[in-house]
Structures are given as C-alpha cells and as structure tokens.
Amino acid sequence: MKEMSTWIRDTNKSWLHRSLISVLAAGPIPKHVAFIMDGNRRFAKKNSLEQAQGHLKGFDKLAEMLDWCLDLGITEVTVYAFSIENFKRSKEEVDCLMELARQKFSRLMHENDYSLVMLWPDLYYTSIFIILSIQIGLCTKDEHGVGLSGEVIDKHGVCFRVLGNINMLPVDLQEIIADAVTMTCHNNRAFLNVCFAYTSQDEICAAMREVAEGVQLGLIKESDISERLLEKCLYTYQSCAPDLLVRTSGEVRLSDFLLWQEAKLKHEAELDRIQKEDDYRNAVESCRITPPAGTQNGFSVQHKVNTFAAQRQERIKNFLQHVERRRARLFQDILQNRCIKCGT
Questions:
Q1: Would 259 be classed as within a structural domain?
Q2: What's the domain count of the chain?
Q3: pTM for the model
Q4: Which DSSP string do the residues of 175-190 spell out, in sequence order?
Q5: Does residue 12 contact residue 222 with C-beta atoms inside 8 Å?
Q6: Residue 102 lies in a domain
Q7: Is residue 338 part of a domain?
Q8: Which CATH number belongs to the domain containing residue 96 in this structure?
Q9: Does a structural domain hold residue 236?
Q10: Pfam families under this entry (predicted)?
Q11: Residue 216 has what pLDDT?
Q12: Residue 230: predicted pLDDT
C-alpha cells in the first residue's frame, strides 16, 4: 500500500478560497451537517486503483470537508462511516478497511503530528484531531511526553459520540470507543458523531425495543408512547436534526441513514404542533372515560387534565433517565470487563 496522508493538512489556502469562505460565512450557516461517505470503490475502479486506495481517497475527502466545515463555523458534524450492511462485503474488503485504519493512525504517531495540535489556530479542528487520535488509543502523550489527561479534552470542549449497534463490533474496538465517549461525554462546545455499525432501520428498531421494555417494566404506559418519545430513544437523541446532508458520490439515495431525522427536519414545526394536540386530546379522553365521583365542574376537569399531564411527564422523564443510564452503563461495563481481563 502506498504512503498515506495524515489527519492534519498544513496547507495555505488560496486568496479565492478565503474570500469564498468569508462570503459564505456572512450568511446563514447550518449548525449541523451530515455526510454520507460514498463512492470510494467506484472511484477506485474508474481510476484503475486498488480498493484500499479508493478508501484512502475517501478519507482524504473527509478531512477536506471537515476543514471546510470548520472554516464556516459549523459546530456539529455527523459522518456515516460504516453501515451494518457493510459487514456483508467480502472479508478481504472489510479486513482491508480495518488495516487502512491501523496504518493511518500508526503513521499519525510516527510523524508526531500531535505536536502540530498545539500550534493549530482553529480550536474546533484541534479538538477533532485530539478526539480522533485518542479514539483509536494511539495518541496518549503530548509533545513533551506528558500523559494526555481529561483536562486537555475539557479545554477544547469537544464531545465525541459513536452512534450505532456497538455490540456488533469487536471487543477491542468497543473498549476504544468506550474510552473516547466516556472521556468526552460532558463536553458541549462542539460535537463529532461517527455512525459506525449503523443503519436507520436498526436505530428505529432499537428505539422501539427501548419503549417496549419501558412498558414491560411499568416505567411508562402504552398511552405515553408518541413520536416524540420514540425520537428520544434514538441513537441521535442528544443531537438536533441535520440542517444539511451531503453525499460525497453525488448520488441522491439516503442509504438507510438518518431517515427519521431527515423527515423531522422537513416537518418539524407541524409535528410539534400535532403532537401537543394529541397529548391534550388523550388527557381529555381519559377524563371522559374515568370521571371521578361527584359533580364534574370546570375546575375539577381542568385539575384532572393537569394531574394526568403531570403524571405522564414524570413517567416519561423517569423512563428517559433509565434509558440514558443504561446506555452509559454499556460503556462502563465494557471498560470494567477490560480491567477484569487485565487483572487490574
């Protein structure tokens, strides 16, 4: 395999590039951009390259797009890195992708690119570089050989998330992900979401299982189930819907990526209005079916509605806290199992 480029591109931008960025930055800028990394194999075939080289070119394009986003001040990026469907590809190709990642980050360390971080002028780009370096467990020391601590990550304020079916990944990769996610979960200046072992169908099914289990455990009632509740159980529950979706190959297919989120983006205001009306109607219907003993005046009906709404809100809050705690425990359990295996 040929020599590979690095995460950091220390290149001088042209006057035209800087001018275009300035013009664009003067107008409305999306807060959240999602990327579908696609077309690597077609690019390789068209240019008579090996598949590995095609994937490498795809990585280079991702680095370039991140640079554009950072120039524009975009604070959240979601990347479709690996679909569950990709597991169906040949073992040779999957292994090639894994080896590409290993070589990429090994070169990162050999070139001592981490020293560039301290000089890099863009805070967000610096943060992304640090998080990606730590994610694969290779960049653990600063330029002076001092162990990299959570204080450095806190300083830059980037939250790193992996969205997907983590249990499908190899155990060692789960441990690496758990380290990065746990270390940065409290940061809130910028967000880098990597969809790995992900499809939208799997995400929605996982959310439905969470809701069904909540009903089984008695945390919520069937009447509490709504689009909004299901949305809060998605992998992306901590993110706003993307403002812009880019597919690098130029295709217009969504490929099972953020289907729920893209639909909500288009109809967000309408869904919000309809959902609030549905909640109110359900409450009124419950009052009509099970009226309390005694005279039903306006005050008692309103009191019943308010009580019902408050109880529902409390149930939903407790349920969502239960879901969030369980997701946090997933990473804690992964790290604990690693400690047990290592005998520490």
A1: yes
A2: 1
A3: 0.66
A4: HHHHHHHHHHTT--SE
A5: no
A6: yes
A7: no
A8: 3.40.1180.10
A9: yes
A10: Prenyltransf (PF01255)
A11: 93
A12: 94
